[in-house]
């Protein structure tokens, strides 16, 4: 009888007669993963590539050493696995690279990295691919039957450009890697937990969702007042529907704030997806507070469980069947409509981690909507542009660049790195901007906090947006406290939402309401003030502030006042962008928010030296690696961070639910779950201030995991975390 080899074991005491009959046969696992991976990779014409890496990924498990390890592991308690593990992923990589040093090396990245993540091709670490291809691995002679079936492809599935070969091969490897690791996860899950597997997949089709959206939008539009703004919103929707018939590729949707682009862009996406046989819609938004709002809108107009939210603040309900399905779908984006953050989207494209890469193959052949596309951080602009270009050119994605201002990333004579062949959906953005103009802007020059507070106090309803939390708190304290509000990230998310609902109520009831906020209200927060003050900032931010002024056009004109803070702007990008705005103010004879001014602003700010637009040199390094195929996957993953993490969490236990969660924390076996539940009661604090709070005795670490504020006087009902009573620089808290 032929010897049996296994991929996975189960504890011996759970198996009848202490046999291995219920273990996962290795040949079955390899064949299944090969077929699933092949199916995923077929979406980008790499079916045979996907099959090969699936068939070879675990060939190292044919070694005696691994089979012995598997037996010992099955006989050990769950928390006491054998300390010496056996490398089973290198063998397949060595074999395939030995057949073809070039094509084989591309496949070897995927095989060798399918557990630990994509390695660097060449580095000083022993984990880099070149070192692993030379290392000694256990013999695995019994894999000969698999080897005999191999037929390596000769060329990549698309033409390789001489000037972009590095980027093309970099993302080809990542898409193949994604196909493999997701296939491996799914087949292993099916063996260990079939019930979990049975929950995967959505009952909704894009056609069903399109039908629901069309009916609900038609019903809404038939009942709205016959105002000029609503007529314009209907015209924008008509433009989106007409453009959906165009061939796949790159689009822009330039619609001023309040033009209804959220639902109109989704209507375009669904119609375009159906006409062009796309797999899903991926809606990418820069901020989590906008995601939560937009997700609720989509659930209302599509279906309550039609949308997957994939971002740090979302907690799935383990007791809800549909949310269990959604939680699983968030792992690999196997769902019709995904809504996620820019951080999650772009960092997944450049990450080397298996968990981040699982979803990538499901981006293929999708419609991607990038809301507030101008918010891509300056220092990562070129890598982001190159990823979008590659998704469009090689992976059949349609991408919509949504913005209230002209997109800054389209190719022009002075910006050759920009995206080409971008088609505008709105028929006349300039005329649209003029028609939707509801605000008169005035530049006030330099103002101190007392002057701004005094001017704002003269309004019955007024909003002031500033650049730092410290300034927001100081101006707020100078206002009459009755009917005055403050919003910043010094307040935990649940607190902010409660305050925001109270503000909306007062505005809707035409009651007195003054609000001082940081820029967190500038995108996706539907508030409408007759008067808005904005501290000097980038012109795109000022345009967003204008979107909170006379939003519904109930007045002839809203008033937007722009002022320069007496103490200037925070250093770095804020100062740089504010200086460009001041230049426009001093040189342009046109109205400040004219699209030609915004175009000039982006030209000055973004269309500068390429080094500043790729601060970490990511694209340059990828292109330089193409000669020897030594791609820096791990290094790129470490360097591509849209948000620099220099803060630490602090849980505020003011609300009953927060107190209950903290009191029960010792009873929770799933710490990750309770951690996510506590996020809505968490403030992010600069590391130096966090350390001082801890030294001051203001923080208790519950169960060695959860930092909880225990000094109630340090959290103010109006302004949130308040460090005035400590000798700490409150300005170091994040904006």
From TrEMBL:
Domain Helicase ATP-binding: 242-424
Keywords linked to the UniProt accession: Antiviral defense, ATP-binding, Helicase, Hydrolase, Metal-binding, Nuclease, Nucleotide-binding
Entry-linked Gene3D superfamilies: 1.10.3210.30, P-loop containing nucleotide triphosphate hydrolases
PANTHER family in the cross-refs: RNA HELICASE (PTHR24031)
Domain Helicase C-terminal: start-end pairs: 448-609
The keyword Metal-binding appears for this protein: yes
UniProt-recorded name of the protein: Helicase Cas3
Lineage: Bacteria, Pseudomonadati, Planctomycetota, Phycisphaerae, Sedimentisphaerales
